[in-house]
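Model: You mentioned two targets. I'll fold them one after the other.
Researcher: Yes, keep them separate.
Model: Target one:
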Amino acid sequence: MIPVTSFAGKRVAVFGLGGSGLASAQALLAGGADVIAFDDNADSVAKAVQAGIATADLRTVDWSNVAALLLAPGVPLTHPEPHWSVGLAKAAGAEVIGDVELFCRERRRLAPNSPFVAITGTNGKSTTTALIHHLLKSAGRPAELGGNIGTAVLTLSPPRPDLAHVIECSSYQIDLAPTLDPRIGVLINVSEDHLDRHGTLAHYAAVKERLVAGVPRNGAAVIGIDDEWCRAAAGRIERKGGNVIRISVRQKMTEGVFYDDGEIMRAAGDDSWPLASLDAIGSLRGLHNAQNAACAAAAAMALGLDEAAIQAGLRSFPGLAHRMEQVGRKGAVLFVNDSKATNADSAAQALGCFSDIFWIAGGKPKTGGIAPLAGFFPRIRKAYLIGEAAADFARTLEGKADAEIVGTLEKAVEAAARDAEASGLKEPVVLLSPACASFDQYRNFEIRGDRFRELVKALPGLTPP
């Protein structure tokens, strides 16, 4: 835990008592703050009480002596309208902040030059975060992983000069961290997302930009420039004197890091040279993963890793669960768990990586279905359709790809494994990339992916990927 001393002797209200909210309350208490916490969910309040945290309905407390409201990132700050607790805090003149802001304040007190890496982006931030952490650890550097990737940042070890904190930041967390100042900031990409919480794409992009705008001049802002929002952000930061490392997977550059035919290249002036190769790295297939890997390699380079260490780390990266996760092989058949693909755009990234696909798709449908994936249908040898979307997906695939409504994941794995093995193809792939939410049959995509992995690992003759 990181005890938060910046509010020692002061009262802090905490709203939102999920994992990060509870961790924040406990860290504030450990640092000497007077904490009063609440949540709209009675069960969450009960858990806080069991953890020894004082609770009260924040609508009834005296806000005149409250120094700050610690807001959980899942609670609306601005859109569609501020949560009622935000209104009370602002009326009383209390600042509204989140757990990443508390971490930043403690880091500045304890180890202001420590290798703090913060990562954001609409797509790929979890993979990039995990990959940076893996590159550092595989090179023998002390490093801890947290933030939006699943481990509350304040549960990590306190900052110290040699310890890298590699922190994934959602737009919600950035919005609650006004003094966010990573030594290495990574902005991968920006596309339309979370407009229900940010109002407009322009506002959403501006929030994302804050992460790299806060990088000090002796640090590095690693920015993917393959979209207009990030290109503009890179220009603004550079004009203000920031050190920008531009990343592209769509064009060669004279300065920065780019991807070209399987190679991550470093460019400086008229010269360019290989930084690392992605050839035959199954966990980093696809152009989207090339972007993630290029950003991670640039961040590692800025932290002093050499080409050999970066290459070794990329080759040993296992990937993330449920994101193009290679579960195993049975003969020539590769089984891939991409349960995280809960919409067509996400499924497209996986479908674009393989040529002979035995595709398991379906679940709770999203608007638009799989019609946007028509360009990938020639790659599909057969589709095995499950869940509520099965009939609609079958209609979309009719006459374009062989499809069978099987209903359940259990039947899909059995049939796809059998057909792929019998196909005689050189590199058949059984791919779970549902293009749907899981809620019709599973509580979340993780449980769906876990079940797929379990079913695949029960197949006789399975070997590591």
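Model: Target two:
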Amino acid sequence: MIISNIETIRVGQFPDLLFTQVHTDTGIVGLGETWYAAPTVESAIHDYFGPLLVGRNPSEIERHWQTMFRLSDHAGYGGAELRAISALDVALWDIKGQTLQLPIFEVLGGGMRHRIKVYNTLGVYGNITDGYDVWNDPVGVVHSLLDEGITAMKMSPTDFIARETDGQILFNDDLDFALKPLRSIRDKFGMEIDVANDGHAKWNLPNAMRIVREMEPLRPMWHEELISPLNEVAHARLQSATSTPIAAAERLMTRYQHRRFIESRAAMITMPDLTWTGGISEVKKIGILASAHQMPIAPHDCVGPVNMFACAHIAMSTPNVMIMEYNRALHKGWYNDLIEPNFVVEDGYLLAPNEPGLGTRLKQSVKDRRDAIIRVSDRKEESWLMSRNRYTYPPQAMQDEFTSSTPRRSAGFSSVYYD
């Protein structure tokens, strides 16, 4: 089996969402996804990484990941390159599972569990307006979640009060107003529901320290990105100001950035976004690294539906996953328009996918949409790309010259190439 072509699909309704389909010569198609700056990621897939993969064996996932990462790291990895690698990695795992006729979590080592508890991020789409309703009727929102068996939620009460001053000034009356919904929830329900606080990195450190101290009696599940995750020392100071766990952070990419937070006192929970940080391959490594430090992981979501499937496989096969993010407004809203089948959340738990591979596929109707933008690449690695980067696979002609007796360190190439 070889990779015959790579296809990307964007839809105008969701301009930051990018689906990636890796096609093989046997007809098996792997599905991946990423989110944000989709046209830039699309270019990275087709102009840089696609030529490395076309004509190769899709089962050699780790080798492909290392080769793509080394190409991106040649000039400093991050951003669009890692999101492209993430989408391609998920698609390759989908192919692997379909080939073996097993769900991905079974290929990763089998089920640690077959369901994972979810928390609902308060989103807005269609008839579900949790993100608005929590300000007018916080008790009603919690009642509706508990009715579905969901006993944890996440909100962003301080976001809007940061806008006027870009988080540089925090007025007492603003903070008091922002925390009213959470206080109402605690007055009515006590600790019947956990509530996480997401700050979206809008605050400076002194104001973030004030927020965590003021919220301490309300016993939030965690504080997430009250400050930017660019500085783990500042995060450590924030963590020292509260007994509430600090969660960091979906913006971090690869095990290398997560390591700084895992090995320091900068956070108590690590929160990788699978479709940004390096895909299934990398999040599995991040989970193992965190487990060595007795740290739980809580995968980030609130992007497209494929991420939820991919995270489900990580959650089922990784011992130290504590909970999974879920957005019922998106799940019950537009996800059904794009994939089949949809994932299942039942009684507050995300259930393990049971079909081979990822467990879902892109609906044909997505590619037929008038707002769909489709790009396909079927070209193999070219000499100009090889000349830019010595860490990729040698040209096929050079590989053919190698014999079993040829020293593996010859020709100035790394050991990442095909035998």
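Researcher: Noted. Anything on target two?
Model: The first strand starts at residue 3 and ends at 11.
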